[in-house]
Amino acid sequence: MPAPTATIQQHEYPNGLVLVAETMPGVQSASFTLLVPAGAAYEAAEGLDVGGGAATMLCEWITRGAGDRDSRELLNALDDLGVSHSESAQTVHAGFSAATLGANLIPALEIFADIVLRPRFDEEEVEPIRSLCLQNLRSLEDDPGSKVIYELRRRHFPEPWGRPSPGNPEDVARITPESLRSFHRAAYRPNGAILGVAGAIDWPRLRDAVGALFGGWERRPEPRLSERPAGPRIDHIARETQQIQIAMAAPAATVAGPDYYRARAAVAILGGYSSARLFTEVRERRGLCYSVYASYEGQRERGAMLSYAGTSTERAQETLDVMLAEFRRLADGGVDLEELDTMRAGLKSSLIMAQESSMSRSSALASDWYFLGRVRPLDEISAAMDALTPESVSSYARTLLKPGELTILTLGPTPLDVKLPA
Fold first, then answer.
1. How remote is the C-alpha of 102 from its chain's centroid?
2. The pTM is what?
3. Distance of alpha carbon 133 from alpha carbon 166, whole angstroms
4. Residues 159-197: pLDDT tens digits?
5. In sequence order, what E strands does 53-207 have?
6. Are the C-beta atoms of residues 408 and 250 closer than 8 Å to each other?
7. Residue 182 and residue 34: Cα distance in Å, rounded?
8. Alpha carbon of 229 to those of 159, 322, 402: distances in Å?
9. Contact 36, 116 (CB under 8 A)
10. Is 272 helix (H, G, I), strand (E, B) or coil?
11. Which helix (H) or strand (E) holds 297?
12. Average pLDDT of 288-306?
């Protein structure tokens, strides 16, 4: 008898909330990921007087008491259900994720409906939250690797799409409870929100329960965002550190674009696994640094290849030069079949492992729906990976380093001499 297969269902409620769910045979857990279009970018919406860090502060505040429960009662209720959960504000979304036993899924959703729709907004919680956010910002100063990536994104993506979600100390210090409430009223809306659910679920019961819990969430106008140029493209942040941090960004294909899989392959071959080019050339052969990588970031209207290395001040110039040389080699010389097969095997393994986790799957459901308006079956992804050839990836790699579009940021005691590709 054939094994049961996963089933994907979708429903859009009258208020615009989209539910995407997948039944996963053989698992007892159930997980959900709720994406609300209320991330750091919306701090810059017209008519909102909030500063950087407001999305993060609000995300923390609404979890400190909601509905009939105060902060302690809410945490106890989640613990009693065995719910593992996390909440965070990213660039576009405020995200709420939870995993529990399938039997406890709907009671967990009931609690999160209170969190999102009916936060208590106890003002005595604001100062402890502000203190935590300021501590986080101070800790970033002690983590220059993370700091340089935040600042690279700010310079590479147009404002407000490169906004760091932690904000900045000046803005966090002046955010008021009323400005956070205003941000909640304006940005937290069902139209544009996506709920991905995966695991041991009963679809009709889930669909009806979500409708009952979130159906009263009223539509709101989408906040207006004005896009502004970022930059500068080449920059240095002076810090008296023992190392120099090097970060680079280049435009890449979007998630929905026809070149998406070729972009992911090119970025991975450059620096996405332990035998990738940057790791091999910069770390293994030359011993220039311990940490070096390249990764892909997708936004709806744009994508980017991000690259990073942290090295000593004495070897920083050589590290930067070698990284740029590897960028050129990828663009000029393309890729070969062996490294393409290595990349393909690694990506397929990670996809299969993610399929076996209800938490990873709920996140993938919500993400696919946001970017594509549908869910990609695993077979489709696998077939797209199999269709890649050295020639197709090499052809795409030649487009990665367009003149004037590479952003380079260094952080440390002295700036470096940046020799951009012609």
1. 26
2. 0.94
3. 7
4. 999 999 999 999 999 999 999 999 999 999 999 999 999
5. 84-89, 94-101, 194-199
6. no
7. 21
8. 6, 29, 17
9. yes
10. coil
11. strand 289-298
12. 95
